């Protein structure tokens, strides 16, 4: 009988991680300490706010009443933990000076050099040399920020000397290898020897004629003629359909781990992640397929309504496609359907082992043969938290698969668009206010250090005048940063409202996921996008230690 395999690798990093976790585990609880410590020790990331981990210990309460008080002004997921990728072969073909020269050589052999007299002033967008000119131009303009992956053949722009070109790229500051797309309009002129030259280029996604249609099988770079408008610019690269087990025999051959809904439901997102990754980690340890419920209850803190909201979809926030690829999972409703169907057709029961308490450890279940392991979380809080399965001794065996959890590509498309509109050439300041600024006991200077006048003085000492300045903040008052506008081109998340407004791609796509009901752009999404734009800035000014000497976690914690 075949088992559904998922890898449980033990690399040095893994060992390290287990040690780190087990050491901290006596004082476990707070998610942030663990992640933050693990990140700091194992991954040594360049992010300054991840360093003040130990100080958080002061926030802790007793084990049973673990509170997940973490920094809600920043959201880190798996892709932020990856070491900066080397030039991985899986990343696809990169356009570099070398590849451009090669295609130029090829052209030279085909003996079709421009004739200065005849061709003057006629730009033929289909001429491969136009593409070469554009590739050179892009490389020169964006080389330090962007890796160019694939180009589409140029198409006509709106004027005779304009060409629209589309390509895929990745951002050097993003550590996952996800690709994004851009299409711009270029004005082509002639240089010495009548060679093509880009004389002007419009901004991010300005080359409307090169927008690609929704192609069911993805990008076909050999296509030469793209239909013009109307095209649907949706990101057809995202495939987060719900996988099904398939045939009945395949269902029976699998081995599954089910977690019933526990006390984590409607707790903060950090607790959800900490718990979810515990379940997924246990499934990997047991070589089982994890049965996951895509339904998420978003805690009140992130909701404009200020109430817990059930019925959110995992895919609004996280990259389900990536999760499907790297972990063995099946969606709960599909699973139950298949389970019932099998029992009906075969008139017998599938072996299920019910596990009543988290006190039965993953190690004790290692030899379990039943097709389905069903963990119940019925007890009172905090007995019914999923993450308790991974406590104590189990922490040595179970590794939370952080790498499986990335932010939603749809949110990242928004991030990419915001930074693209600033041509990836911007600085950022992170201004934490909100509750912390109000709490004078723990953060005595924060409020005044982030006052409009002080911001101007302090930011000026660190950032050149008239740069693009992105302000990532939890300050709700839009005009709070107006004083900075006399010195910088200020950008705030709300300046890009149309990216999630009712005419946006994001709106359309999330609506489709949500059975046709519009999805609200909630607080968690805002922070996720704000964080990622911040990560892409050239110079980053942090609230703590750059703007104020108050400690990140309250007095005497640093
Ligand atoms: C946890 O909280 C409950 C109620 O909030 C309280 O009764 C209990 O004593 C607390 N437990 C510990 C160990 O602090
Ligand atoms: C290349 O062009 C030159 C001049 O136009 C011509 O004499 C020569 O035959 C061409 N070579 C080939 C291989 O077409
Ligand atoms: C433009 O260039 C392509 C490829 O070199 C060629 O096939 C086509 O005939 C040219 N069109 C015009 C109008 O010159
Ligand atoms: C592009 O423009 C050229 C001349 O400006 C024209 O000859 C050609 O037919 C156009 N191509 C398409 C695909 O419209
Ligand atoms: C122009 O052509 C001349 C002679 O073929 C060559 O030496 C020169 O490098 C060319 N200039 C450019 C910018 O390609
Ligand atoms: C791309 O399109 C061309 C022609 O339409 C076809 O021959 C080729 O197989 C396609 N490639 C892929 C990867 O779909
Ligand atoms: C999407 O992924 C599923 C597997 O998860 C696959 O069966 C399906 O064919 C994919 N759809 C497209 C359009 O690539
Ligand atoms: C899971 O698979 C790995 C290798 O395939 C094996 O070493 C391990 O013992 C298996 N674990 C269980 C619980 O079957
Ligand atoms: C989009 O929102 C605006 C303002 O909220 C509203 O006036 C408009 O009717 C909406 N359009 C659609 C298609 O829902
Ligand atoms: C969103 O969907 C509506 C209706 O289906 C369509 O008219 C609109 O063009 C779409 N917008 C985008 C950006 O895809
Ligand atoms: C912010 O503070 C850190 C730590 O003191 C320092 O390394 C960094 O250079 C400062 N950032 C700026 C933009 O000055």
What does this structure look like?
The protein is an alpha/beta fold. It has four domains: 16-45; 89-210, no CATH class; 248-404, no CATH class; 409-547, 3-Layer(aba) Sandwich (Rossmann fold). The chain has 16 helices and 16 strands. The chain has helices spanning 12-25, 31-43, 97-109, 116-119, 128-142, 248-253, 269-285, 314-317, 320-326, 332-346, 409-421, 434-438, 446-449, 452-460, 505-513, 523-535; strands at 146-151, 155-156, 162-171, 180-190, 196-201, 256-259, 289-292, 295-298, 309-313, 329-331, 352-355, 372-375, 427-431, 468-473, 489-492, 540-541. Strands 1, 2, 3, 4 and 5 form a five-stranded antiparallel sheet that branches. Helix 3 packs antiparallel against helix 5 and helix 11 crosses helix 16. It is globular. Mean pLDDT is 79; it is low at 1-14, 17-70 and 214-234. Bound molecules: 2-acetamido-2-deoxy-beta-D-glucopyranose (11 copies).
The total of helices stands at: 16
**Major beta-sheet overview:** 5 strands, antiparallel
Number of β-strand runs: 16
Round the Cα radius of gyration to an integer and report it: 26 Å
Bound molecules: 2-acetamido-2-deoxy-beta-D-glucopyranose
In helices, the fraction of residues equals 25-40%
Domain DUF7075: 249-543
Domain DUF7074: 122-206
Transmembrane segments: 20-43
Keywords: Membrane, Transmembrane, Transmembrane helix
């Amino acid at each position: 009988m075949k088992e559904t395999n998922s890898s449980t690798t033990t690399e040095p990093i893994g060992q390290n991680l287990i040690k780190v976790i087990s050491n901290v585990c006596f004082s476990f609880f707070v998610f942030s300490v663990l992640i933050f410590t693990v990140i700091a020790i194992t991954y040594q990331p360049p992010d300054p706010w991840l360093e003040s981990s130990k100080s958080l210990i002061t926030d802790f309460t007793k084990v049973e009443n673990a509170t997940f008080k973490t920094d809600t002004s920043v959201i880190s997921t798996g892709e932020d933990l990856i070491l900066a990728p080397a030039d991985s072969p899986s990343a696809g073909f990169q356009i570099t000076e070398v590849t451009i020269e090669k295609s130029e050589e090829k052209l030279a052999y085909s003996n079709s050099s421009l004739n200065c007299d005849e061709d003057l002033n006629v730009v033929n967008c289909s001429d491969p040399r136009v593409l070469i000119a554009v590739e050179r131009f892009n490389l020169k303009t964006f080389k330090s920020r962007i890796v160019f992956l694939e180009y589409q053949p140029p198409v006509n722009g709106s004027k005779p000397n304009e060409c629209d070109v589309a390509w895929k790229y990745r951002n050097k500051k993003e550590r996952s290898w996800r690709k994004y797309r851009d299409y711009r309009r270029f004005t082509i002129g002639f240089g010495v020897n009548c060679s093509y030259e880009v004389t002007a280029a419009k901004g991010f996604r300005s080359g409307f004629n090169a927008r690609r249609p929704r192609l069911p099988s993805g990008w076909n770079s050999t296509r030469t003629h793209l239909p013009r408008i109307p095209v649907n610019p949706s990101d057809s690269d995202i495939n987060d359909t719900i996988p099904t087990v398939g045939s009945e025999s395949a269902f029976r051959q699998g081995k599954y781990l089910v977690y019933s809904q526990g006390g984590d439901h409607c707790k903060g997102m950090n607790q959800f992640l900490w718990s979810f990754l515990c379940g997924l980690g246990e499934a990997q340890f047991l070589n089982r397929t994890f049965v996951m419920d895509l339904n998420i209850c978003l805690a009140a803190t992130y909701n404009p309504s200020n109430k817990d909201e059930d019925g959110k979809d995992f895919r609004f926030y996280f990259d389900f496609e990536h999760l499907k690829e790297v972990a063995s999972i099946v969606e709960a409703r599909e699973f139950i359907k298949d389970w019932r169907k099998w029992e009906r057709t075969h008139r017998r029961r599938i072996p299920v082992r019910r596990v009543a308490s988290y006190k039965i450890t993953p190690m004790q279940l290692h030899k379990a043969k039943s097709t389905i392991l069903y963990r119940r979380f019925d007890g009172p809080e905090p007995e019914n938290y999923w993450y308790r399965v991974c406590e104590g001794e189990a922490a040595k065996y179970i590794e939370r698969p952080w790498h499986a959890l990335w932010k939603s590509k749809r949110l990242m498309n928004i991030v990419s668009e915001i930074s693209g509109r600033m041509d990836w050439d911007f600085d950022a300041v992170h201004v934490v206010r909100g509750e912390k600024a109000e709490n004078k006991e723990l953060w005595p200077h924060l409020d005044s250090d982030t006052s409009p006048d002080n911001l101007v003085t302090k930011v000026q000492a660190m950032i050149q005048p008239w740069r693009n300045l992105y302000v990532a903040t939890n300050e709700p008052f839009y005009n709070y940063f107006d004083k900075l506008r006399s010195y910088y081109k200020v950008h705030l998340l709300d300046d890009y409202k149309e990216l999630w407004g009712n005419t946006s791609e994001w709106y359309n796509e999330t609506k489709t996921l949500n059975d046709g009901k519009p999805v609200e752009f909630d607080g968690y999404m805002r922070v996720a996008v704000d964080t990622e734009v911040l990560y892409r800035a050239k110079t980053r000014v942090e609230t703590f230690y750059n703007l104020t000497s108050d400690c990140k976690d309250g007095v005497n914690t640093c």
